[in-house]
Structure formats: C-alpha cells, structure tokens
Amino acid sequence: MARYSVNNYTVDVLLVDIKSGNIAIPEMQRPFVWDATQVRDLIDSLYKGFPVGYIIVWQNPSVKLKDGTVAIGKKVLIDGQQRITAMAAAIVGQEVLDSHYKWKRVCIAFNPIDEIFEVANSANQKSSKWIPDIAKVLDVSFGSFSFVMEYCQKNGIMDKAQEINDTINRLRAIQNNSIGVITLAEDLDIDSVTEIFIRINSKGVVLSQADFAMSKISSNEIYNGNVTRKTIDYFCHLLESPEDLKEIKKNDAEFAAKPEFEAIKWAAAKNAPIYRTCYTDVLRVAFTYKFKRGKLADLVSLLSGRDFETREFKIEIEERSFNQLHEAVLQAVNQTNYERYLMIVRSAGIVKKSLIRSQNVLNFGYALFLALRERKVDSNQIEKIVRKWLALSILTGRYSSGSPESAFDYDIKRFFAYDDPMQYLSITEAGELSEAYWKVNLVQRLNTSVASSPYFNMFLVAQVKAHDKGFLSMEIDIESMLENRGDIHHLFPKNYLIKNGIVQAQYNQIANYAFIQQEINIKIKDSSPAHYMTEVIGQCNTKKPVYGGIIEQDRLAENLKQNCIPDGFESMEIGDYQDFLQRRRELMAEKIHQYYDSL
C-alpha cells in the first residue's frame, strides 16, 4: 500500500470540504498565529500563481462498529491550518481568534490599478484606488460589471475599464487555483508520519507526538474530544495570561457554559506557579496516570480504537479511550489536585522554577501523584514517595536525556506492578543511589563550572529545606535570596583567583559558589579567605559587624556548616584552592544525601 497519495484541490473546493467536515481541522478554535502581512503574502502568491505549499492530512483508520459494520475515518489536517485559516479569513471573510482569544477580521486590500495587496489600514480604506476588503469581491453575489464601472468613474480611468475588469476577474480566479493535498495512509504509525511530514515540509518543522495526539482529540466531536482539547488549551493559556479569562468567556460562550470551564477558570488567579504547564505537559500527565503508559503514540492508537492484541480498530475502544482521557484531563486541571501537588513540590525545597530544569520531572511527579491518589494510597505515603521521586529523578537525570517517554512508560508500569508502590521506590534507590553514588559519583558530578547544574540546584534545594542562611548572613535565608533574585558569588573571589593565574573553568567551579548578600560581597572585594575571614572572626570579638551581622562564634560556626565551608577556610590562600574545592564538594554531596534521607 502507498504511504501517501497526492491530489489537487481548488481553493474553493478545499474550503467547502473543510466546512463540510470531510477534512477535519482540529485547531480552528485556537489562536491564529500568523500576522496580517503573512496573510497578504499568501493571497499575493495565489494571485500570481505561485505555489503555496502542500496541505498534509492523515487518514483516520476505519473502525469496526458494535453492529459489525465499518465506519470510514475522517481526514485530519496535520499541516496547513494557518494557511487554511488565512484563506478563510481573506477570501471568505471569516473572523479569526487572536492570541488573546478575541475574534477579529483580517482584511486584505487590493489596488487593481497597480495590482498590489496590502493589509487594510486607514490610508487605503479612504483611497478610491483601493478595494478595502477583497472578501467582498470574492463573494458569489459580487456584481463585476457595475463595480468596474463605478471604480473607473471614481478614479477617472474609464478608458481602462477593460483592463480593470480583467484584473478583477484574475482576482476572483484565485479561488480556482490548485493546492496539493497529501493524504497520509491510515495504517502509518506516528514515527512514519513524523518522518514523512518532515521530509515533505520544506521548513523542516518538527511535529511532536503530542501535536498528533491533540489533532486526533480535537477532531472527534462524537466523544467530546473538542471539549477535552479546549479544556487543555484554555487551562494552559490562563496560567500564562490570566487577564484573558473574560475574553475567553465572552468569545466562547458555549464552552464557558460547560462544567469544564468552571473546572479551569481558577487558573486565572494562580500567580506564577512553579509548575506551569503547556498542552504537551497536561496531555502527558493525564495519559500517563490514567492509562499507565508513557508513549503518546499509544494514546493516538487508543483514540483510534486500536486493539493491541488483535490489531483491529474497534469503536468501543475508541469511545472508552476518549472518555478515560477526558476524565484524566479533568483530574489534571483540578484545582485541589494541582495545588496539593505544588505543596508537595515546595515541601521538597523546590521553591522556584529555575531549581528544576527538566519539566518532565515535574510531569512524571504529577502523574505519579494522581495515580497514587486514584489508587487510594495514604496521603502521607503519597507525599513521601512523590518528594523522593522528584529528588531521585533530578539527581539521576532520569527524564532529562535519551527517551523520557520510554522512562515514563517503564516507571509508571513498575510503580503499579507492586502491591506497595514504596517497593519500587526502594528498589530504585538501592540501584541508583547506593553509597558509591553519594561518596563518589555525586562528588564527581559537582566538579563542574556549569552554574545551572542540577547538582548545584539540588544543593540549593537542600539548603532551602534546611532553612539555611546565606553565607555570613545573620537572618536572610537561601529561600528569600532565591525568591528575590539574590546573588551567587565566589567564596574565593573571582578577581583574586584571576590575579593568581586561575583559569575560568576553575574559578567558576560550583564548589566555589555561595549565595552571598551583595553588600557583604562588596566588602569582601578581592581578598583571600584568610584576609576577610580574619576580620569576620574579629567582629565576633569586637561585636562590631563589618561583613554581615554575625557577631557570635557559635552562630558563625553554624553558618559555615550550613554553607558547607570546610574547616580551616579562615586561613586559606591561593595554594589551598584545589583542596578547598574537593573538600567542599564532599561536604555538599553529604548535605544533599542528608537532605534526601529527610524527605
């Protein structure tokens, strides 16, 4: 069987096919991302007969109905939605949604004398030489003869009436231009579809498996897939742009009247949460927790009704899968679930988004939280499992490299292969976080100059959890510094190391970093630790603070311990730098170990 077929459609037939539902556009209710000049350029290309690229659709598989008959699947548009929407806006006069969910017209003006297009503006709207909106000329009821006569008379060019008439006819003829439609075969898997898509698409755009899944979801109105899609999209949008709540409610009154809207509108009041999701995140969380699978290709197959054993497509599987996904999405966007999960994240010391680079760590943590709740595991045990799994995932880079989907699939299945999910956590800890990891591997991984290192972030998380103060700070803690953009500075000052011939990769070692109040760092300047720490110790005797507010020996000792400063730091010079780095790495690794055990 051919992997795809190519057919030519005229613009007007294509638009009619889409309007009738023969080709399903899954994203017509999503914001239109092209700007008006791109619409103008598309119309200009159609007018001049230039190619405007292929539209790519994927033939949905036919499914076996309960009575034994077979229903032919729709074609789902997977590339070309912006071009289709642009043509519908300019040619038919259809309104589009902007990025703030406001409906608006995109009007394209045309000058028949010079044969040029422009985005409608106040200047060409007032000029008699311009047709302010080509949609009126392209309407079936448009009277060409009377228009040409009136236009030529207004502009004093009656001698050019025939030329203007020919130009108007060429403009109207853009609806007859052909556009290639590539239909991908129904039996192709997502990986094959993705490869074909990339090879065909001249821009080399990568379409993710989540994109395919979302297209599949929103094109199915029988099982309210379009409602599920809107629930996901609007929820994620409100987390980013809460000010658009009123516009969504006004411009999509039908959805606003549904319980799904009631379930998500709380997101507009959530102030910059640590865990801010896009549609891919919500989809991945909902699917992983409800279906106990991690590969979104499996979701597309299930939503198509695929029976993994018989390899048939059955209507009951399709129906069940859509219903389960809808239920899972509602759980994922539920305010109570979301906020309880955020509390667990914060209780682990993760108080800022920058402390956790991998969104997939948070995604799996949330999926695990929801799955454990659905299994009715004790809430205290849920908190412990989720906190530890978050930390373990960061420390081992579990979802940051290779194939996170495969890791999701592996982990969610094994968590629920045991009667007690703590068993899988314990088994993983024994294999991944052995004594050798804490004493050797982690120490080695702290040997880096990458300031965004997950291991340095975990050290900061450990400090937050322990309520540690900044280096030489009397009251200001690490959490406050993180949340208020505190400064990370060098314990061995940068310029001091440069003057002594230390290269960048060495003076920027994360073992030389600490959160230090700016005013304290300014006073330290370029001094060696032996110099400035002698003065710090001295202020404990004189009770006159110079570097921060600590004036007691025991509080100074506790502060140095909290920041993993090795013994003897107060007398260190340049010759001690490498030994300092190694000893501090060991102390930092031990602090992270103690932190993990406390979760």
Automatic annotation (TrEMBL):
Cross-referenced InterPro entries: GmrSD_N
Family matches, as Pfam families: GmrSD_N (PF03235)
Residue span, GmrSD restriction endonucleases N-terminal domain: 14-216
Protein name: Uncharacterized conserved protein
Species the sequence originates in: Faecalibacterium prausnitzii L2-6
Classification of source organism: Bacteria, Bacillati, Bacillota, Clostridia, Eubacteriales
